[in-house]
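FW: tagging you since you asked about this chain on Friday. Here's the raw sequence from the shared folder, copied in full. Didn't touch anything.
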Amino acid sequence: MSRKKHSKELKARIALDAIKGQKTMSELASEYGVHSNQIGKWKKQLLESAPDIFTREKDKEAEKKEVERNRLYKKVGQLQIEVDWLKKRQVIWDERRREDKMHRSQRFRSQYQQTVRLAGTATVIFLKAQGFHF
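HL: got it, structure written out here
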């Protein structure tokens, strides 16, 4: 057995009839072919949402803006966290590059010193003049 689909207009009319109180729930249920519990739910929904009908459009727009502002603040906070993390990573990366550069520099000096010892100063001067780099 499938559920019946009722239009929003029919639901509103049934709920209004229930609010008027001219007929009992049982009478409305038999007239419209809907269970009295369902009529009670629709009546409650109508009464709860009735004040929203009279809210100003500006209030709705203000609420939308508030939601959007909160979303943007959240996004800004997330991006700030990412920037801070990247800055920390950059500091670590810079330290590693500095260490690598020092290590390469030390290696170059030791290679140069070995070359000087092995080949002699005159040979090194000649090789530098030829464009050879150590």
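FW: The chain has a mean pLDDT of 83.
HL: agreed, and The CA atoms of residues 54 and 109 lie 83 Å apart.
FW: great, closing this out.
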